[in-house]
Write a structure and sequence with these properties.
Rossmann fold, Cobalt-precorrin-4 Transmethylase, domain 1, about 40% helix, 4-stranded parallel beta sheet, flat, 3 domains, about 300 residues
Amino acid sequence: MTVKRAAVMGRCMGVKRAADLALAAAAESGGRGVFTLGPLIHNPQAVAELEAAGVSALSEGELDGRVAGRTVVLRAHGVPPSSRERLLALGARIVDATCPRVLTSQRRAAGYAARGWKVVIAGDAGHGEVVGIAGYALSAVVVGGPGEARAVDASGPGGEILPIALIAQTTIKKEEYEAIRAVLAERFPVLEVVDSICPCTEDRLGALAVLAAEVDALVIVGGRNSANTARLLATAKAFGKPAWLVETAAELPPEAFGFDKVGLSAGASTPERLIAEVEESLCRGGLPRRAGFGVL
């Protein structure tokens, strides 16, 4: 079997920065460890590795006196301002690991809301990034597709139609964002579209398209709770090639070993170690690791 990697894959700048900040904070904690507000990144194995290094995740419901005087790292997806305020009130020391691109979306949302615009966020309403952005524009509406965009109500307090500002979740597909934009453009006379899609997302999808034309099947490595990894899998399947999502090499299905050429891609939260293990397993045909075996 030949295993070929996509030209662009794996951890993005924002995820690597967040992990590095959390590990540095843990190293400086004097053995006390640090907390993150929610999982730092959407990859269970990476989160487990961080826990082993002294980085523990807390949910919003677990915020209490235990964070007083302790370091709390804000995850790459960001948080709403209410969460930041609560941490400060509890006496926590905050390390902000929010992706710089997400920070820009938060600032843009706050600016439009302050000017009286209706903020529309294109993305998954339950995603941490979207929740955080919406917190900076309390009247914001989240839409997941063109159908929901048709239901947006932009009426002002006096019945006037408010201008619309459209902001995308950074990991949304360009085609999905354009479809939402087109619907809003038909309905509202004033629409400003923020170019907030992370180029890393489009770069990975583009590299996957090139890879798909060169292989017989595709394997995507990443967390099942990762939005960008899910989009990679959906795109891979759309090419008509057999495609699987695995979090670890142990999850590779037997049928994945029956092809001459297999393409490998990975989500933006996936550590290189996991990618390498999947690659090695594919090259070995699923056989147990042997001492001295290397992947070319």
